[in-house]
Amino acid sequence: MDQANLIALLNRLRQEPNETEWIEFKADSYHPQEIGEYLSALANSACLLGKARGYLVFGVDDNTHEIVGTTFDPYREKGKGNQQLLLWLAVGLQPNVGFEQHIFMVEGKRIVLFEVFPAFGRPVKFYGTGHIRVGSSKTELAKHPEKERAIWQRNTDWSAQICERASLSDLEPDAIHKARQEYKVKFPNKATEVDEWNDETFLKKTGLAVHGTITNSAILLLGKPESALLISPAVARITWTLKDEKKLEKDYEHFDPPFILNMDRVLAKIRNLNIRQLPSGTLFPLEMRQYDSWVLREALHNCIAHQDYSLSGRINIAEMPDRLVVTNVGSFLPGNIESVIRQDAPMEVYRNPALARAMVNLNMIDTQGGGIKRMFQTQMKRFFPLPDYDLSDPARVVLTIRGTIMSEQFTRMLMERTDLDLWALMLLDKVQKGIRIERDAHQRLKKLGLVEGRYPNLYIGAKVAAVTDQKAHHIRHGSLDRQYYKDLIVKLVRQHGPVPRDEINRLLVDKLPEALSSEQKHHMVHNLLTDLRSKGVIRNAGTRRFPKWIIQDLRKNNKQ
Question: Which of 402, 255, 250 is nearest to 316 (CA)?
Answer without folding.
Answer: 255
